[in-house]
Design brief:
59% of the residues lie in helices and 0% in strands. The chain has helices at 7-19, 34-50. The radius of gyration is 12 Å and the shape is flat. The chain starts with 6 loop residues before the first helix and ends with a helix. The model has no long low-confidence stretch (mean pLDDT 85).
Length: 51
């Protein structure tokens, strides 16, 4: 399966966000497609906004 976001692209974005003061992490959702990634990660996304 092709990843939704190439890991190198994710690292580039992470570096850019951190250089602007953002605090975030990358999470590998496993070998799933885009829709499955959303279902697996939604609780993490919500937690990030409510903490």
């Amino acid at each position: 399966m092709t990843p939704t976001v190439a890991y190198d692209n994710a690292l580039y974005c992470q570096s850019d966000l951190r250089s602007r003061g953002a605090t975030q992490t990358l999470t590998d959702a496993g070998d799933v497609d885009h829709n499955q990634t959303v279902r697996k990660a939604l609780s993490l996304v919500i937690a990030g906004f409510t903490q």
